[in-house]
UniProtKB/TrEMBL annotation:
Residues annotated as transmembrane: 6-22, 42-59, 65-85, 97-114
Coiled-coil ranges (or none): none
Protein's organism: Flavobacterium pectinovorum
Keywords: Membrane, Transmembrane, Transmembrane helix
Protein name as annotated: DoxX family protein
PANTHER family tied to this protein: DOXX FAMILY MEMBRANE PROTEIN, MEMBRANE PROTEIN-RELATED
Length: 118
């Protein structure tokens, strides 16, 4: 495999983040908006997707598909980040400005993933 180091970094970050969904599910369930009726299932699916897409990034034939999957996942989880910004209970006591910056980090992550879609 001859992939750029930053693709390996991205894969590693998504795999670790996905595993964390299973290691500390309460942390993620807390930020899932109430509109989602089964937060445990949402947490499990999003964690599994992060792990699967992270692994698929490591293989040249599937890395572009995984990058599109990550973009879709980042868009799908944006409501959780917005809920975290709007709801004090879901904010983990973080300052509003950090939560606001976190919303823009999602855009950067989408751009980063987009670099590997072709």
């Amino acid at each position: 495999m001859n992939l750029p180091w930053h693709l390996y970094l991205m894969a590693f970050l998504y795999i670790i983040a996905g595993l964390n969904h299973f290691r500390k599910p309460g942390m993620y369930i807390k930020i899932i908006p109430p509109a989602f009726k089964n937060p445990k299932l949402v947490n499990t699916l999003s964690g599994a997707a992060e792990i699967i897409f992270g692994i698929l990034l490591l293989f040249p034939p599937t890395s572009h598909i995984a990058a599109w999957g990550i973009i879709a996942l980042l868009i799908a989880i944006f409501p959780a980040n917005l809920y975290m910004f709007q709801n004090k209970k879901a904010s983990f006591g973080l300052p509003k400005w950090i939560l606001f910056v976190r919303l823009f980090v999602q855009i950067i992550l989408v751009y980063w993933a987009y670099q590997y879609t072709f």
